[in-house]
Amino acid sequence: CRFQRLDFVYLNAGIMPNPHVNFKALWHGLLSGRLLHMLTTAEGVMTQTDRLNGDGLQEVFATNLFGHFILVRQLESLLCGNEKPSRVIWTSSSNARESAFSLSDYQHAKGQESYSSSKYATDLTSVVLNRKFNKQGLYSSVVCPGLVMTNMTYKILPVFLWMLLMPIMWLIRFFAKTYTLTPYNGAEAHVWLFKQKPEQLDALVKYHSCTSGLGKCYVEPRKMDVDEETAEKFYQQLLELEKQTLEKYQDLLD
């Protein structure tokens, strides 16, 4: 109601309920030489226990993706058709993996990697938004803030254990540049994107916040492992779910 256009919308809300570390998987990772990869992406290491929210949707899917999708759709008239491009920037993750996502269970009701699934779904959604709306001046990007110590992270292990591990994590950063550790460092890609011309960005790239072992922050673009046909099919499912949701709450919207 107050504005004729929006220049930027940062979509950052996220949850990871009841995360558990698979120490057996970590041990196997050490023996197989995949430990650094697992520590960087949390692949095979993290599981979560999801639940339904008050709307009857899986809570992680609703918070990490669908609420954002509804918001973007509602703001479409302010984001499209302006003199200057508008930007939508999603906080994704290096933990976004195709193996955790399924079109037949896109809310991830049956699995234990709801966070991974929701972040891969975020990548899919961004790809389709660019395909459909770039010509109308709306551009979408996804970023990964790296491993940042926040309230979400502190739920994975007790705080005192994180404090004991912190010196080791500082050492790991010499080999795993996505160990940004602080929210300030993690925001590097968000700020960097603010300064870029969206027409020159690759719609199939995720922009990762990185920090060198000596503490220098920079951004690293990485091609996303996204199937564009799957992305389109998923987008259509989101539109159908949006329709059902808006019909359910039509009285409130009126």
Automatic annotation (TrEMBL):
Biological pathway: Steroid biosynthesis; estrogen biosynthesis; Steroid biosynthesis; zymosterol biosynthesis; zymosterol from lanosterol: step 5/6
Residue ranges of the TM segments: 156-176
Catalytic reaction equation(s): 5alpha-androstane-3beta,17beta-diol + NADP(+) = 17beta-hydroxy-5alpha-androstan-3-one + NADPH + H(+); 5alpha-cholest-8-en-3-one + NADPH + H(+) = 5alpha-cholest-8-en-3beta-ol + NADP(+); zymosterone + NADPH + H(+) = zymosterol + NADP(+); 4alpha-methyl-5alpha-cholest-7-en-3beta-ol + NADP(+) = 4alpha-methyl-5alpha-cholest-7-en-3-one + NADPH + H(+)
Membrane topology field: Single-pass membrane protein
Gene3D superfamilies named in the record: NAD(P)-binding Rossmann-like Domain
Subcellular location: Endoplasmic reticulum membrane
Gene Ontology molecular functions: 3-beta-hydroxysteroid 3-dehydrogenase (NADP+) activity; 5-alpha-androstane-3-beta,17-beta-diol dehydrogenase (NADP+) activity; estradiol 17-beta-dehydrogenase [NAD(P)+] activity
Key words of the record: Endoplasmic reticulum, Glycoprotein, Lipid biosynthesis, Lipid metabolism, Membrane, NAD, NADP, Oxidoreductase, Steroid biosynthesis, Transmembrane, Transmembrane helix
An example Gene Ontology CC term for this record: endoplasmic reticulum membrane
Top enzyme category: oxidoreductase
Full protein name: 3-keto-steroid reductase/17-beta-hydroxysteroid dehydrogenase 7
